[in-house]
Each structure stands twice: as C-alpha cells, then as structure tokens.
Amino acid sequence: MSTERAYWLTWAQAKGLGPVLLKRLHSHFGSLEAAWQADGADLLAVEGIGLGLGSSLVQYRQSVCPKQTLATFEQQQPNFWTPADPQYPALLFEITDPPPLLFYRGRPELAEALNTQPSVGIVGTRSPSDYGQRWTRRLTQQLAIHGVIVVSGLANGIDRHAHYQALESHGLTIAVLGTGVDIVYPWANRALQERIANVGLLLSEHPNGTPPDRVHFPRRNRIIAGLSRAVVVTEAPIRSGALITARLANDYGRDVFALPGSLDNPCSRGCLELISQGAQMILDEKTLVTEMAYLPQLDSAAAKVESRPESAPQIPLLAPAMAAVFDAIGHDPVTLDQLVTQLGQPTAEVLSTLVQLELMGAVIQLPGMRYQRSP
Question: Are residues 275 and 363 both part of a single domain?
Fold first, then answer.
C-alpha cells in the first residue's frame, strides 16, 4: 500500500488545512510525503499558508507519526480512500477542493467505473410537483439503460426519485451523504439507502457515526458536482441547494442542464433562472443521453480504453440484476425461454433486462426471440 495514503490522512487532520490548501500543498510539492519532509520556509511558498499556520504545521509534524496515525485510523474506519488510492475517483480529484478522505459503503468498483463510464448528477427540490417527479424518473430511466451512472444526494424529493428509478431500471447509482455512510438520514429513505448499499455505492467525506448537521449538506453538493460529468436540475426554487450544486458544477467545468417548467410553479423558477444564465435546456428524454456522447473523456479513461484489444467489446459495469442476465448469454444464440428457466426469473423481468442490454449494445436479438452477445 502506498505510504502517500498515510500522509493524506495525517495532513487532513492538521488544524487549519482544508481541502483547498491540501490540494495546493500536494500540487506544490508533488506529493504530501514530500511536503511532510519540506523545510518550514518551503511551506510558506504555498499560497494560503502564512507564518502562523506554517509554524503550527511544523509543530504538528513533530508531534505525530503518519504511519502510526494510519494504522490506528484504519482499525476504527477501515472503509475509506484518499487521493493516493487507485479507487479514489479521478474525476473528483480534478476539482479545486476534493475531499482528502472519502468513506464508502457498497460496491467499491462503482468508484473506479467513473473513470470509464459517464456519470450525471440529478438534483432538485425536496418537494417536487408531479411534473418534476415524472420527468426525473423519465430522464433517469434513459440514463440508466444507457449505462450512465446516476449520482445524487439521497435527500427527499428529486434525489429520492433519481436513485429509486436508477435501481428500478437496473442501473448504477451513487449516493453522496451529509452524514456517515452508516447513518440513515432522512429516516424515510432507510429502505432505499440499504438498497443502494447492496447494489450501488454510498459515499461521504465524514467518518462512520457522523450525525446530520446543516453545514454538511452544502459541502456535500460539491462532491455530487465533482463526481458528475454533467449535472441536471429537474425542479428547484430560487433558494435551493440544487442551484448551489449547479453553480459548483459550472465552476468545475462540468456541463449543466435544467428542465424547463411553468412560470406558475415556484419550484421551476430556479431551473428557468439557470437556463437564462446559459444552462442547457432539456427538451426531451434523449437530451442528456445524446449530449453525454459529446463530452470529452478523462485522460485516464482514454488511456484505459486505448490499452484494450480492439476486438474486445467495451461493456460498461452492470448492475447485479442486469449482469446476471448478461452472464447467462453467450456468443451462441439462446432463447428467451432458456434464459427464463436458467435464471428462475419472471419472463417480463428477463425481457425488460434484455431490452436494456440491447439499447446499451451489449446483446443483439435474433429471429425467434433468440439472443446473443454483441460481436
């Protein structure tokens, strides 16, 4: 395991160092281990570190051992990443203030999938209209069946509908929490949170046991924006945390989309304001899916794709239910009845999954309701 992990953890516990300064420290010295070994005078060359903070950091370094700090912390909080870990999303580290510690629960491979699969953050009001709920579900369904990872904050309202529809469509979803990943908030979402923990991924910058606090949630919004290639606001009033997420996304160079609504609906005013300021307007269910194809790939993602043999099919990470059907299909044709018998699932459920796999280009349908993997 990289020793840099220990230095990220130890620097993160120093008083006066927030995410912005930590990233500047890393950028200036090339690594936090190098920063740990640097002279006190060299620390002052980092923008934002003055004499007082610099002196405090020198004293702090003399009082702690990074290796021992990591060993103790891992015993108490085993499931966390730092930017030194390969599982830490490269997309998130691009922002100016990435969380130095990212705690997780669920399927860790979803974090790595962000390097090769598109992701969209869906946010909005906690009190959506029927229109907002309906279009959130319709947009999410299209994203899910095209292999797009849906990111949201597991709040009531739009967040809840986005996560729920992603799961119902056998898609992938990541929930960013303002509490520890072991804390349920709001309580009404307890069943949904557990479901995401089983087949999706829960993330937080707060350690296990951290209760909800009103100051945590605006900070959580930057992680949603950072994990997303694009952010869509489906319904939000003028004063809304969803607009904070959209503005952060814009600052981070992400695409921002908004769903237009009625002037008579106060919960549409925020979306209309975003559109007036240059956000892309959603005109139909396919807007997001179409636009995602034009977003540039991450360098790390492009490198991984280029390293694959040209003949290898590039199948995205699948949700467990969809993966089970895909695994049951070989390169030789298999009938629908054979799949139903083999999987022990209802015919309608298997057929629905097959349609989604076809839309993703993972399987093809042959005459006689036969299916095989795409060549």
Answer: no
Full residue range of the structural domain in which residue 24 is found: 4-76
- Token pair in block for residue 359: 């839309």
The answer to whether the Cα torsion of 51, 53, 54, 55 is positive or negative is: positive
Residues 142 and 58 in one domain: no
Q: What is the CA radius of gyration of the chain?
A: 22
Q: Which string of DSSP letters, residue by residue, matches 187-236?
A: GGGHHHHHHHHHHSEEEESS-TTPPP-TTHHHHHHHHHHHH-SEEEEEE-
In a domain, 91, yes or no: no
**What six digits make up the tokens of 76?**
């108490």
- For residue 323, what are the contacts with CB-CB under 8 A and spacing of at least 6? none
Pick left, alpha or beta for residue 260 (phi over 0 → left; psi -120 to 50 → alpha; otherwise beta). Answer: beta
Q: What is the CATH number of the domain that holds 334?
A: 1.10.10.10
SS3 labels along 142-154: HHHHCCCEEEECC
Residue 10 and residue 209: Cα distance in Å, rounded? 20
Q: Residue 122 above 80 pLDDT?
A: yes
Residue 217 has a pLDDT of 93
CA 132: distance to chain centroid?
22
Are 111 and 185 part of one and the same domain? yes
The domain boundary residue, chosen from 60, 76, 92: 76
In whole angstroms, give the CA distance from residue 241 to residue 247. 10
| Strand spans (E) along 205-333 | 230-235, 255-258, 280-281
Residue-wise pLDDT tens digits, 175-225? 999 999 999 999 999 999 999 999 999 999 999 999 999 999 999 999 999
Phi, psi of 35 (to 5 degrees): -65, -35
Contact 123, 152 (CB under 8 A): yes
DSSP 3-state of 279: coil
- Report the distance separating Cα 345 and Cα 334, nearest Å: 16
- Angle at alpha carbon of residue 157, lines to 249 and 122, rounded to 5°: 25
Four-residue CA torsion sign, 226, 232, 233, 234: negative
b (16+ CB within 10 A) / e for 161-188: bbbbbbbebbbbbbbbbbbbbbbbbeee
